[in-house]
Amino acid sequence: MRKTSDKILMQRYFLGGLPQEERARIEDQYLTDADVFEEMLATENDLIDAYVRGELSENERMKFEAAYLRSPQRREKVEFARTLSQVSALARQPVQVQEISLRKKMWAAFSVQRAIRQWALAAAVVVIAMSAAWLMVQNQRLRAGLRQAQAGQAELRREEDALRQQIAGLEGNPRDQAQENRQGSEVARLEPLSGPDVTLRLTPGAIRDTAEPQKTLLLPPATSGVRLQLMLDSDEYKTYEAVLLTAEGKEVARGKALQSRPVGGNAAVVWRLPAHSIPAGEYIVQLTGQLAAGSQEDLQPYTFRVLRR
Predict the structure, then answer these.
(1) Pairs from 141-150 (Cβ < 8 Å, separation ≥ 24)
(2) What total of structural domains would you count in the chain?
(3) pLDDT digits 0-9 by tens, 148-182
(4) Enclosing domain of residue 216
(5) Alpha carbon 292 to chain centroid distance?
(6) At which of 101, 130, 162 does a domain end?
(7) 123 alpha carbon, distance to own chain's centre
(8) Does 150 share its domain with 193?
(9) Sign of the CA dihedral 252, 253, 254, 258?
(10) 250 and 136 co-located in one domain
Protein backbone atom coordinates (compact mmCIF):
# COMPACT_ATOMS: atom_id res chain seq x y z
CA MET A 1 0.00 0.00 0.00
CA ARG A 2 1.48 3.33 -1.04
CA LYS A 3 1.37 6.48 1.04
CA THR A 4 -1.58 8.83 0.87
CA SER A 5 0.67 11.55 -0.50
CA ASP A 6 1.65 9.30 -3.43
CA LYS A 7 -2.01 8.57 -4.21
CA ILE A 8 -2.84 12.28 -4.13
CA LEU A 9 0.09 12.92 -6.47
CA MET A 10 -1.26 10.29 -8.88
CA GLN A 11 -4.73 11.87 -8.75
CA ARG A 12 -3.19 15.25 -9.59
CA TYR A 13 -1.45 13.57 -12.52
CA PHE A 14 -4.79 12.44 -14.01
CA LEU A 15 -6.43 15.80 -13.20
CA GLY A 16 -3.69 17.72 -15.02
CA GLY A 17 -2.43 19.49 -11.91
CA LEU A 18 1.28 18.60 -12.16
CA PRO A 19 4.11 20.43 -13.95
CA GLN A 20 5.72 18.72 -16.92
CA GLU A 21 8.84 17.63 -15.02
CA GLU A 22 6.79 15.93 -12.30
CA ARG A 23 4.59 14.22 -14.92
CA ALA A 24 7.69 12.90 -16.68
CA ARG A 25 9.06 11.54 -13.39
CA ILE A 26 5.81 9.68 -12.62
CA GLU A 27 5.66 8.26 -16.15
CA ASP A 28 9.23 6.95 -15.84
CA GLN A 29 8.30 5.30 -12.54
CA TYR A 30 5.24 3.41 -13.78
CA LEU A 31 7.12 2.30 -16.92
CA THR A 32 9.91 0.74 -14.85
CA ASP A 33 8.13 -0.31 -11.63
CA ALA A 34 5.25 -2.83 -11.84
CA ASP A 35 3.97 -1.88 -8.36
CA VAL A 36 3.72 1.79 -9.33
CA PHE A 37 1.96 0.74 -12.53
CA GLU A 38 -0.66 -1.20 -10.50
CA GLU A 39 -1.20 1.79 -8.19
CA MET A 40 -1.66 4.08 -11.19
CA LEU A 41 -4.36 1.78 -12.63
CA ALA A 42 -6.13 1.55 -9.25
CA THR A 43 -6.03 5.34 -8.79
CA GLU A 44 -7.38 5.89 -12.30
CA ASN A 45 -10.26 3.44 -11.75
CA ASP A 46 -11.14 5.01 -8.38
CA LEU A 47 -11.16 8.47 -9.97
CA ILE A 48 -13.45 7.29 -12.81
CA ASP A 49 -15.86 5.62 -10.36
CA ALA A 50 -15.99 8.75 -8.19
CA TYR A 51 -16.78 10.88 -11.25
CA VAL A 52 -19.51 8.52 -12.46
CA ARG A 53 -21.12 8.41 -8.99
CA GLY A 54 -20.91 12.20 -8.65
CA GLU A 55 -18.60 12.03 -5.64
CA LEU A 56 -16.04 14.54 -6.94
CA SER A 57 -16.09 18.13 -5.79
CA GLU A 58 -17.03 20.81 -8.29
CA ASN A 59 -13.39 21.81 -8.72
CA GLU A 60 -12.26 18.21 -9.17
CA ARG A 61 -15.10 17.50 -11.62
CA MET A 62 -14.11 20.49 -13.79
CA LYS A 63 -10.45 19.44 -13.78
CA PHE A 64 -11.41 15.85 -14.59
CA GLU A 65 -13.53 16.90 -17.56
CA ALA A 66 -10.90 19.36 -18.82
CA ALA A 67 -7.82 17.13 -18.47
CA TYR A 68 -8.91 13.49 -18.44
CA LEU A 69 -11.82 13.48 -20.91
CA ARG A 70 -9.74 15.00 -23.72
CA SER A 71 -8.67 11.50 -24.81
CA PRO A 72 -11.20 9.34 -26.76
CA GLN A 73 -9.86 6.19 -25.08
CA ARG A 74 -10.38 7.68 -21.64
CA ARG A 75 -13.92 8.78 -22.56
CA GLU A 76 -14.66 5.15 -23.50
CA LYS A 77 -13.46 4.05 -20.06
CA VAL A 78 -15.79 6.56 -18.39
CA GLU A 79 -18.79 5.46 -20.49
CA PHE A 80 -18.08 1.82 -19.68
CA ALA A 81 -17.89 2.60 -15.96
CA ARG A 82 -21.14 4.60 -16.13
CA THR A 83 -22.96 1.70 -17.84
CA LEU A 84 -21.60 -0.81 -15.35
CA SER A 85 -22.67 1.41 -12.47
CA GLN A 86 -26.22 1.72 -13.83
CA VAL A 87 -26.55 -2.03 -14.34
CA SER A 88 -25.21 -2.72 -10.84
CA ALA A 89 -27.64 -0.21 -9.34
CA LEU A 90 -30.51 -1.87 -11.19
CA ALA A 91 -29.48 -5.28 -9.88
CA ARG A 92 -29.38 -4.00 -6.30
CA GLN A 93 -32.92 -2.58 -6.32
CA PRO A 94 -35.11 -4.48 -3.79
CA VAL A 95 -38.24 -6.19 -4.93
CA GLN A 96 -41.14 -4.73 -3.02
CA VAL A 97 -43.25 -7.40 -1.43
CA GLN A 98 -46.91 -6.63 -1.69
CA GLU A 99 -49.65 -8.08 0.42
CA ILE A 100 -51.71 -9.86 -2.18
CA SER A 101 -53.59 -13.05 -2.36
CA LEU A 102 -52.09 -16.39 -3.25
CA ARG A 103 -53.61 -16.20 -6.70
CA LYS A 104 -52.10 -12.73 -7.29
CA LYS A 105 -48.73 -13.94 -5.99
CA MET A 106 -48.81 -16.90 -8.39
CA TRP A 107 -49.83 -14.60 -11.23
CA ALA A 108 -47.13 -12.05 -10.31
CA ALA A 109 -44.53 -14.80 -10.45
CA PHE A 110 -45.30 -15.24 -14.11
CA SER A 111 -46.14 -11.67 -14.93
CA VAL A 112 -44.30 -9.72 -17.58
CA GLN A 113 -42.90 -7.29 -15.03
CA ARG A 114 -41.33 -10.07 -12.98
CA ALA A 115 -39.91 -11.63 -16.13
CA ILE A 116 -38.41 -8.30 -17.20
CA ARG A 117 -36.72 -7.91 -13.83
CA GLN A 118 -35.37 -11.43 -13.99
CA TRP A 119 -34.02 -10.87 -17.47
CA ALA A 120 -32.49 -7.56 -16.38
CA LEU A 121 -30.76 -9.27 -13.45
CA ALA A 122 -29.48 -12.05 -15.71
CA ALA A 123 -28.26 -9.50 -18.24
CA ALA A 124 -26.51 -7.59 -15.47
CA VAL A 125 -24.75 -10.77 -14.36
CA VAL A 126 -23.66 -11.45 -17.94
CA VAL A 127 -22.45 -7.87 -18.40
CA ILE A 128 -20.49 -8.00 -15.15
CA ALA A 129 -18.89 -11.32 -16.13
CA MET A 130 -18.00 -10.01 -19.59
CA SER A 131 -16.63 -6.81 -18.06
CA ALA A 132 -14.46 -8.74 -15.65
CA ALA A 133 -13.11 -10.85 -18.51
CA TRP A 134 -12.45 -7.73 -20.59
CA LEU A 135 -10.63 -6.09 -17.70
CA MET A 136 -8.49 -9.19 -17.23
CA VAL A 137 -7.56 -9.19 -20.93
CA GLN A 138 -6.75 -5.48 -20.84
CA ASN A 139 -4.66 -5.95 -17.71
CA GLN A 140 -2.67 -8.74 -19.40
CA ARG A 141 -2.12 -6.53 -22.47
CA LEU A 142 -0.94 -3.65 -20.31
CA ARG A 143 1.45 -5.93 -18.44
CA ALA A 144 2.82 -7.27 -21.73
CA GLY A 145 3.23 -3.72 -23.04
CA LEU A 146 5.03 -2.74 -19.84
CA ARG A 147 7.44 -5.67 -20.17
CA GLN A 148 8.13 -4.77 -23.81
CA ALA A 149 8.74 -1.13 -22.90
CA GLN A 150 11.13 -2.15 -20.11
CA ALA A 151 13.00 -4.52 -22.46
CA GLY A 152 13.20 -1.82 -25.14
CA GLN A 153 14.49 0.71 -22.62
CA ALA A 154 17.19 -1.72 -21.44
CA GLU A 155 18.20 -2.42 -25.06
CA LEU A 156 18.46 1.33 -25.76
CA ARG A 157 20.70 1.75 -22.70
CA ARG A 158 22.97 -1.07 -23.92
CA GLU A 159 23.20 0.49 -27.40
CA GLU A 160 23.95 3.88 -25.88
CA ASP A 161 26.77 2.40 -23.76
CA ALA A 162 28.21 0.62 -26.81
CA LEU A 163 28.15 3.84 -28.85
CA ARG A 164 29.86 5.75 -26.06
CA GLN A 165 32.61 3.12 -25.91
CA GLN A 166 33.08 3.32 -29.68
CA ILE A 167 33.30 7.11 -29.57
CA ALA A 168 35.81 6.97 -26.73
CA GLY A 169 37.89 4.46 -28.70
CA LEU A 170 37.85 6.63 -31.83
CA GLU A 171 38.78 9.81 -30.02
CA GLY A 172 41.57 8.13 -28.04
CA ASN A 173 43.31 9.44 -24.95
CA PRO A 174 46.32 11.84 -25.08
CA ARG A 175 48.01 9.98 -22.21
CA ASP A 176 47.60 6.67 -24.05
CA GLN A 177 49.03 8.30 -27.16
CA ALA A 178 52.12 9.53 -25.24
CA GLN A 179 52.62 6.10 -23.75
CA GLU A 180 52.26 4.53 -27.19
CA ASN A 181 54.96 6.83 -28.61
CA ARG A 182 57.36 5.91 -25.78
CA GLN A 183 57.17 2.19 -26.45
CA GLY A 184 59.68 0.32 -28.64
CA SER A 185 58.84 -1.09 -32.04
CA GLU A 186 55.07 -1.43 -31.94
CA VAL A 187 52.17 -2.63 -34.01
CA ALA A 188 49.62 0.08 -34.81
CA ARG A 189 46.26 -0.06 -33.08
CA LEU A 190 43.59 -1.11 -35.59
CA GLU A 191 40.38 0.88 -35.22
CA PRO A 192 37.38 -0.27 -37.27
CA LEU A 193 35.62 2.70 -38.86
CA SER A 194 33.07 2.55 -41.65
CA GLY A 195 33.82 -0.71 -43.51
CA PRO A 196 36.99 -2.84 -43.33
CA ASP A 197 39.41 0.09 -42.86
CA VAL A 198 42.30 0.38 -40.39
CA THR A 199 43.71 3.53 -38.80
CA LEU A 200 47.31 4.43 -38.02
CA ARG A 201 48.07 7.51 -35.91
CA LEU A 202 51.44 9.16 -36.68
CA THR A 203 53.34 11.94 -34.93
CA PRO A 204 55.72 14.23 -36.87
CA GLY A 205 59.50 14.05 -36.77
CA ALA A 206 59.87 10.28 -36.18
CA ILE A 207 62.47 9.69 -38.90
CA ARG A 208 64.50 6.52 -39.14
CA ASP A 209 67.87 7.80 -37.84
CA THR A 210 66.47 8.92 -34.45
CA ALA A 211 65.77 6.97 -31.28
CA GLU A 212 61.99 7.32 -31.70
CA PRO A 213 60.21 4.00 -32.36
CA GLN A 214 58.87 3.48 -35.83
CA LYS A 215 55.16 2.77 -36.19
CA THR A 216 54.29 -0.57 -37.81
CA LEU A 217 51.00 -1.12 -39.61
CA LEU A 218 49.84 -4.74 -39.88
CA LEU A 219 47.38 -5.12 -42.78
CA PRO A 220 45.07 -8.16 -42.90
CA PRO A 221 44.19 -9.44 -46.41
CA ALA A 222 40.57 -8.22 -46.23
CA THR A 223 41.53 -4.59 -45.50
CA SER A 224 40.17 -2.17 -48.09
CA GLY A 225 41.50 1.15 -46.85
CA VAL A 226 44.10 2.77 -44.57
CA ARG A 227 43.40 6.00 -42.69
CA LEU A 228 46.53 7.88 -41.71
CA GLN A 229 45.99 10.30 -38.82
CA LEU A 230 48.82 12.83 -39.22
CA MET A 231 48.95 14.63 -35.86
CA LEU A 232 49.83 18.35 -36.02
CA ASP A 233 52.00 20.35 -33.61
CA SER A 234 50.06 23.47 -34.66
CA ASP A 235 47.12 24.00 -36.98
CA GLU A 236 47.75 27.29 -38.80
CA TYR A 237 47.19 26.40 -42.44
CA LYS A 238 44.10 26.60 -44.59
CA THR A 239 44.63 23.24 -46.33
CA TYR A 240 47.31 20.56 -46.52
CA GLU A 241 48.92 18.41 -49.18
CA ALA A 242 50.39 14.99 -48.33
CA VAL A 243 52.80 12.89 -50.39
CA LEU A 244 53.49 9.22 -49.61
CA LEU A 245 57.07 8.22 -50.50
CA THR A 246 58.98 4.96 -50.28
CA ALA A 247 62.21 4.84 -48.29
CA GLU A 248 64.03 5.34 -51.63
CA GLY A 249 62.05 8.54 -52.34
CA LYS A 250 59.64 7.13 -54.94
CA GLU A 251 56.20 8.76 -54.86
CA VAL A 252 53.39 6.31 -54.16
CA ALA A 253 50.37 8.56 -53.65
CA ARG A 254 49.44 12.23 -53.24
CA GLY A 255 46.55 13.85 -51.41
CA LYS A 256 45.52 17.45 -52.07
CA ALA A 257 43.22 19.98 -50.36
CA LEU A 258 43.22 18.01 -47.10
CA GLN A 259 41.80 19.73 -44.04
CA SER A 260 42.48 19.26 -40.35
CA ARG A 261 39.99 17.86 -37.85
CA PRO A 262 40.03 17.15 -34.10
CA VAL A 263 41.42 13.73 -33.17
CA GLY A 264 41.99 12.73 -29.53
CA GLY A 265 41.84 16.34 -28.34
CA ASN A 266 44.43 17.57 -30.91
CA ALA A 267 44.36 18.63 -34.56
CA ALA A 268 45.21 16.08 -37.25
CA VAL A 269 45.06 15.63 -41.01
CA VAL A 270 43.21 12.39 -41.86
CA TRP A 271 44.22 10.90 -45.22
CA ARG A 272 42.56 7.75 -46.56
CA LEU A 273 44.49 5.51 -48.99
CA PRO A 274 43.46 2.30 -50.73
CA ALA A 275 45.11 -0.61 -48.94
CA HIS A 276 46.15 -2.31 -52.18
CA SER A 277 48.28 0.73 -53.13
CA ILE A 278 50.59 0.29 -50.10
CA PRO A 279 52.79 -2.81 -50.39
CA ALA A 280 54.88 -4.05 -47.50
CA GLY A 281 57.85 -1.80 -46.80
CA GLU A 282 58.99 1.45 -45.18
CA TYR A 283 57.34 4.80 -46.00
CA ILE A 284 57.69 8.53 -45.44
CA VAL A 285 54.76 11.00 -45.49
CA GLN A 286 55.76 14.55 -46.41
CA LEU A 287 53.10 17.06 -45.34
CA THR A 288 52.93 20.57 -46.82
CA GLY A 289 50.84 23.42 -45.39
CA GLN A 290 48.92 25.68 -47.79
CA LEU A 291 48.60 29.30 -46.64
CA ALA A 292 45.62 31.46 -47.55
CA ALA A 293 47.89 33.64 -49.75
CA GLY A 294 48.78 30.57 -51.84
CA SER A 295 52.31 29.89 -50.58
CA GLN A 296 53.39 26.50 -49.24
CA GLU A 297 55.50 25.40 -46.29
CA ASP A 298 56.96 21.94 -45.74
CA LEU A 299 56.27 20.39 -42.34
CA GLN A 300 58.17 17.65 -40.53
CA PRO A 301 57.87 14.20 -42.14
CA TYR A 302 56.14 11.12 -40.74
CA THR A 303 57.53 7.60 -41.06
CA PHE A 304 56.05 4.13 -40.71
CA ARG A 305 56.37 0.66 -42.14
CA VAL A 306 53.78 -1.80 -43.44
CA LEU A 307 53.62 -5.54 -42.81
CA ARG A 308 51.11 -7.80 -44.53
CA ARG A 309 49.77 -11.09 -43.31
Answers:
(1) 142/37, 142/41, 143/34, 146/31, 146/34, 146/37, 149/31, 150/31, 150/32
(2) 2
(3) 778 777 777 887 887 777 666 655 554 544 444 44
(4) 184-308
(5) 44
(6) 162
(7) 48
(8) no
(9) negative
(10) no
